[in-house]
Amino acid sequence: MMKQVLLGMVLMAGLAGAEEYRADWNDLNRYPQAEWISEAKFGLYWHWNYNSIAGFNGWYGRNMYNGPDGYVFKYHKEKHGNPAEFGYKDFAPLFTAEKFSAKQWVEDAERIGAKFIVGMAVHHDGFDLYDSSYTPWNSVDKPPHIDVIGELAKEARKKGFKFGATSHLAWNWTYFSSFMYPDKYDAKEAPELYNIHDPEKGPSEAWVKEWYARTTELIDKYELDFLWFDFGTKDKGFSDQYTAKLTAHYYNKSVEWGKTVALATKIGFENRKSQVHGVEHGKFGYIRYPQWMSDSTLNKGWFYMGAEEDPKQITGEFWLYQLIDIVSKNGTLLLNIGPQADGSWKEEWKQELFRMGDWLKLNGEAVYGTKPWHRYGEGPTHDGDAEHYNLGRNLTKDDVRFTRKENVLYAIVCGWRNEPIHIRSLGKNELPDLGINSITMLGSGERIKWDLKDDALRISFPEKPPCEYAYVFKIEGKGLFPERAPEYLPVHVEPPKEKVAALRISLPGHKQQLSIAEVVAVGRSNWAKINRVPEAEITMSSCETDPMLAADLNMNGHPNMHSVARSETETDPWMLVTLPEPMNILDLEVLGGMENWDAFSKNGKIEALDADGKVIHTWRVKACLEVQKAATDYLGLSG
Question: DSSP code of 33?
Answer without folding.
Answer: P
